[in-house]
């Protein structure tokens, strides 16, 4: 009886995988950064990029294990498996040629590479992946995830024993995430990638932050001209969301706008001004929200005495507007990363707290300024 012959691998050169990526998508695909957020406006073709990257890297790297996550299973399948640009349509010719198989929520390649489609509806679901060796972690709509969920999945990202093509050396293992502003993860995603970080700059991270090369790549609607060609009315529908905050977030990718926030109309461009000399005759007061085990906030305010042009802008501050010109926020920070610890105060006693307010008021009191009143919320 003759021995069974091993199945030969398909010739990928004869079964072409052709896709078109626009410049911003190519930036996210080719970056040497290993922890990337490609996020911002809706319609930036972020999900499509993830599918292209997953397939391309699986073809190029034998044995690669790619995990693609969304929070809800139904969203995962509808967005990535079905539809005219989903995996089934994208890979139909490769399946027919024997270059890959789609079996339930897995895409398998003859070279041993796999794409797993995963979901974590509940925070505890991340523990299903405790033993996983994730070479490439793709998270679609990262702002749907809690920070602890992301950190747990990130700690599963590792790679041992795979041979990388020279052009991909030192670029794996890697993480690529997409996100729009808003939802439960808005604040931590903004803090991690957006606030205080220059777009496109690659920042090496401390071990306590995963030790990877982090980068934020902004995505805007006009970065995807294909959408304008295929669906020219899409931008108008975004503008018709109704809520000004949602329009700015989804159409413009504005991370400073949060639907449901107390000040939903907040905009750094409009509500944050460059320092200027405040007239001494404007009414001043202090407002205090006390906390010890929880954070406290102290604000020094001036009441605008007359319509005033904001220096360097075309905006005017109307008479009676409040100008918060100094603040003291008492929150614990991580000693290594410097990031605030959520809802953890610095535990000052009342006397220390009072001395802190007095010391921070010296620039005013030494200039002869008196406060009209102090308001304290106990």
TrEMBL record:
UniProt cross-references to Gene3D superfamilies, sorted A to Z: 3.30.420.280, P-loop containing nucleotide triphosphate hydrolases
Native organism taxonomy: Bacteria, Pseudomonadati, Pseudomonadota, Alphaproteobacteria, Hyphomicrobiales
Source organism: Microvirga tunisiensis
Domain annotation Phage terminase large subunit N-terminal: ranges: 87-196
Superkingdom of source: Bacteria
Entry protein name: Terminase
């Amino acid at each position: 009886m003759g021995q069974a012959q091993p199945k030969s691998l398909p010739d990928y050169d004869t079964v072409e995988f052709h896709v078109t990526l626009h410049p911003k998508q190519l930036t996210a695909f080719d970056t040497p950064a290993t922890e990337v957020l490609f996020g911002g406006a809706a319609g930036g073709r972020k999900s499509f990029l993830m599918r292209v990257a997953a397939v391309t890297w699986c073809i190029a790297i034998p044995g690669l294990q790619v995990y693609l996550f969304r929070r809800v299973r139904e969203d995962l399948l509808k967005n990535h498996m079905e539809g005219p640009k989903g995996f089934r349509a994208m890979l139909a010719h490769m399946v027919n040629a024997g270059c890959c198989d789609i079996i339930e929520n897995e895409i398998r390649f003859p070279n041993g590479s796999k794409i797993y489609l995963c979901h974590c509806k509940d925070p505890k679901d991340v523990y299903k992946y405790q033993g996983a060796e994730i070479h490439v972690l793709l998270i679609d709509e990262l702002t749907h995830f809690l920070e602890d969920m992301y950190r747990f999945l990130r700690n599963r990202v590792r790679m041992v024993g795979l041979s990388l093509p020279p052009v991909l050396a030192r670029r794996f293992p890697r993480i690529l995430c997409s996100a729009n502003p808003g939802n439960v993860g808005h604040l931590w995603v903004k803090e991690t990638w957006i606030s205080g970080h220059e777009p496109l700059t690659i920042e090496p991270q401390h071990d306590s932050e995963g030790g990877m090369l982090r980068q934020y790549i902004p995505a805007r609607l006009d970065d995807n001209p294909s959408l304008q060609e295929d669906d020219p009315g899409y931008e108008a529908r975004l503008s018709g969301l109704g809520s000004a905050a949602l329009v700015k977030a989804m159409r413009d990718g504005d991370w400073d706008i949060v639907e449901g926030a107390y000040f939903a109309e907040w905009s750094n461009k409009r509500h944050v001004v460059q320092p200027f000399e405040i007239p001494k005759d404007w009414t001043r007061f202090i407002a205090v929200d006390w906390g010890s085990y929880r954070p406290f906030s102290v604000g020094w305010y001036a009441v605008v005495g007359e319509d005033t042009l904001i220096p360097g802008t075309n905006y005017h501050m109307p008479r009676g507007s409040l100008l918060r010109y100094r603040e003291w926020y008492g929150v614990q920070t991580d000693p290594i990363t410097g990031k605030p610890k959520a809802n953890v105060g610095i535990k000052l006693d009342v006397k220390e707290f009072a001395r802190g307010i007095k010391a921070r008021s010296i620039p005013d009191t030494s200039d002869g300024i008196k406060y009209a009143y102090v308001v304290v919320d106990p």
